[in-house]
Specification:
- Helices cover 60% and strands 0% of the residues.
- By secondary structure, it is an all-alpha fold.
């Protein structure tokens, strides 16, 4: 199995885990913050879409003119690192749109990865340097780890909102 296939397997497993956490969550709870100033599920999932785009697509192939069809520009404004979640659902896309965007980004990463050999992934990362990795392959593995970190936050949010644990 190639490094590319292993990285994709980790990314895909992390996404399936994250989506599994959402199975029992009602849409009305996506924007609830258990305590003011704490994050909400909508921000966590929107952040995962924006981060995956940045960690995988931008670093693998750079920006393309059609990227707004994959990740709407409002996602970078609302969900990238440094943004603060607010409990007002009117400021965010609906949960269905967030989930659709997650799916589009995931599909675009899978398609793009299929075009690259392992040697391509060992190249230095594109774009702004990241403190946790130096190669494109490192960005792919960090994407999976990053998603699991945020999945943990979603799991904690669910518990704080009164949902039973999944496992």
């Amino acid at each position: 199995m190639s490094a590319r296939d292993i990285a994709w397997g980790e990314i895909d497993a992390a996404r399936r885990y994250s989506l599994g956490l959402l199975e029992s969550v009602h849409e009305r709870d996506w924007f609830r913050q258990p305590t003011e100033g704490i994050t909400h599920i909508a921000w966590q999932m929107g952040h995962l879409a924006a981060a995956q785009y940045s960690l995988c697509l931008l670093r693998l192939r750079g920006a393309q003119d059609t990227d707004a069809q994959i990740l709407p520009p409002k996602f970078t404004e609302l969900f990238l690192r440094g943004t603060a979640p607010v409990p007002d659902p009117a400021k965010y896309p609906a949960p269905a749109e967030i989930l659709e965007t997650l799916g589009r980004v995931q599909a675009a990463v899978e398609t793009e990865l299929a075009r690259h050999a392992d040697a391509d992934l060992e190249q230095p990362q594109r774009g702004k340097p990241h403190p946790l990795f130096t190669t494109t392959l490192g960005g792919l593995f960090w994407c999976a780890r990053h998603e699991m970190l945020h999945a943990g936050q979603v799991g904690l949010l669910k518990r704080l909102l009164g949902y039973a644990p999944k496992w």
